[in-house]
Write a structure and sequence with these properties.
Length: 81
């Protein structure tokens, strides 16, 4: 059974650009069963995390962003049909 607990955060001050931060976040979370996809946002540089569900533990984990970028979480709800 896979754990849905995310891996540890990278050290602060990694000085990544937005694309590198998105790629590292994807590599860190890609095996999480709740992850759908990751996107980048403009004009304010941020990361968009698309998930199937979002628990308080996941919210705590992302509260400080990722590699200096704000993380906006979107819960994707599948509708039948």
């Amino acid at each position: 059974m896979r754990s849905s607990k995310p891996p540890p955060l990278p050290l602060p001050g990694a000085d990544l650009d937005l694309n590198e931060a998105a790629q590292r976040l994807w590599r860190a979370l890609r095996r999480m069963p709740w992850l759908v996809r990751i996107g980048i946002g403009f004009p304010e540089p941020c990361l968009h995390l698309y998930v199937k569900h979002f628990s308080p533990e996941q919210k705590f984990y992302m509260r400080n962003g990722w590699s200096g970028f704000k993380v906006i979480v979107h819960i994707e709800i599948k509708t039948p049909g």
